[in-house]
Structures are given as C-alpha cells and as structure tokens.
Amino acid sequence: MTHEILVLGAGYAGLAAASRAAHNIRRDALDARITLVNAAPDFVERVRLHQVAAGQDVGVHPLSASLDGTGVDLVLGRVEHVDTGRRTVRVRAGGQEGREGRTEPEREISYDTLVYALGSDAGSGGVPGAAGHAHNAASLGSARALARRIREDAPRSVAVVGGGLTGLEVATEVAESHPGLRVELLTRGRVADGLSPRGRAHVHRVLSCLGVSAREGVCVAGVDSAGLRLADGSRVDADLVVCNAGFGVAPLAAEAGLTVDRDGRAVVGTDQRSVSHPDVYVVGTPRTRSACTAIPSGCPARWGCPWAGPQPTRSPRGCAGTHRSSRRSPTFSSA
C-alpha cells in the first residue's frame, strides 16, 4: 500500500523536506507519495522581505518550478485543522487559487506520515494599537502592503519599533531606498543587542550614515494613527509605524493535541518527531521562541537569518514508510 506523506507549509524547511524526501523515494524506488500544502503558489524568501518592504523587486519563485519533476503533488490552501486521531488534515482554499497546483473550496487529506512545517506568524508583541495602526514585514503580503503605503502615500516620517535584526533590516533598507524619508528606530533594549561590541558599533555607523536615528531603552506603550505613545508619557509622531515586535506560534500544533511547551511550540526529539505523536515530524527553526519546534534539551535561540536556511537535509526510508530494515532513525536534522 502506498505510504502517504503530507507536508504542511512550503517555507525553507517544508520545501526542503518535501524535495529531499521525494529524492529518496525515487532513489530507493519506494512505494510512497508526497503531498505539499501551502497557502500561496510561490516560495517566499522570508529573509528578503525587508527588501520587498522597501519597494525592491526580489523576483517570484513559483513552487511549481521548484517541484517540477519531483513527483510532489502541490495543493494550494490554508490548513484549518489537524486530526491526529484520524490522521487527516482539513484544508481550505485561500485567495491564491488558480495559478499553480490544485485548489478546492475545502478538502480533507489523509496521511500516514505528517511533516508539520508551518513555522511562525507575525506577532504584535502585545503593543496596544499595533494590529490596527502599524505595518510589519513578516509576510510577503504585509511587506508588499508596506511598500505600497510608502509609494502611494509618500509619508515624511517612519517609526520602526524593534532593534533586532528584522527592525534593523527594515529601517536601513527603507532609509536607503527612500533617502528623503525620515526614519527613526526605537527599541526597548539596545540596537543589535546580540552582536559583539564591534558589531554594534558598525551597525550604529551604518545607521548614522543612512540618516536613521536610533533610540534605545524606549518602551512603546501604544500605537495610534498619529504615531507612538511611550511609557513615560511622551510621544513620537510618525506618518507611518512599522512594528517588528516578534513572531508568534501558530496554534494548530497545540489544537491537534501535540505535546507543546509553554510557548506553544511542539516538543520533539532529536529525530524531529513529536514526542507524543511519532507519526508527526515537526521541522523548522530549531529552539527559537517563535519556532514551531522545541527540542527538549535546547535553549531558545534568537530569531535571525542564521536559522532561516533549509534545515531538513535527509529524509530516510522510515519517513517514506518502507518496510526495509534500517538502523538509521528517521530524522529531518542536518547531516
């Protein structure tokens, strides 16, 4: 009987997992089939979204082109529910129908092995008013909306909240692409706090060169149509606010009954399998506070580009459901 492998999410980890599992299936002539579910027809280079937000064209990468010849069946839609008891996933077609892949209003897909690679969602960091009055660059749609707002409304000032890598990338890219725009970067801690003193000094020189003013140790109490309210009662007026206050974990893993940690991340073993559901692999950015996975012995790491590359590098026979003997444990970790 054909072993059904269902991969949810075609980001860096999901696309790599599907492609490499397909390679192993072809190489070893296994009786297995892979279905990849993604909300959009294109692969999103998440580490380049700050360039999109600044109005740059980073190109389009259709998933169909990446999967051509692999035998992977691409289904376009949003994952609504995972039923681990029945081993089914309910998928609803989103607003991306018709270009590539198969779309249906709603369908249920069965699996023998599930690869959960849905990653993280944009978070507001709990800043009041951010959801209604601030932009972000956490997704392709939101990055394009930010670029469109800058292009069409021609704001004179932009306040960027968050001094981590995402905030730095957005602030510097927008400032460089729009030299007439006044850009201010505000952060609760220190700008580029994770870098060495030499690295932080370099970042501050770049910010100064681009005309970006940086304010450290600032607590944002809220966002409104006129800018930012600070905890000390003062204000920062801005025509446009970009809030990069972090990412959140999608609730689907917890709702599906997978064992999760206190932050909602699925808990996995060293083989990337759910500790509660061995037929479910959870792959993505390891050990980050916003990742979908949480290795039990790992400490949360910072979100950043070093974690964004394709991480599943081998998908052995076990994932494909073969009955051949193998001493190697199924894993999606790096070789």
TrEMBL record:
Q: Which UniProt keywords apply?
A: FAD, Flavoprotein, Oxidoreductase
Record InterPro entries: FAD/NAD-bd_sf, FAD/NAD-binding_dom, NADH-Q_oxidoreductase
GO BP: any one term: aerobic electron transport chain
This protein's superkingdom? Bacteria
What cofactor does this one take? Answer: FAD
Q: Does the record carry Thylakoid as a key word? A: no
Matching SUPFAM superfamilies: FAD/NAD(P)-binding domain
Q: Mention one GO molecular function.
A: NAD(P)H dehydrogenase (quinone) activity
Q: Which residues form the FAD/NAD(P)-binding domain?
A: 4-284
Q: Where is the region Disordered? A: 312-335
Family under the similarity heading: Belongs to the NADH dehydrogenase family.
Q: Which PANTHER family match?
A: 64 KDA MITOCHONDRIAL NADH DEHYDROGENASE (EUROFUNG), APOPTOSIS-INDUCING FACTOR 1
Protein name from the UniProt record: NADH dehydrogenase FAD-containing subunit
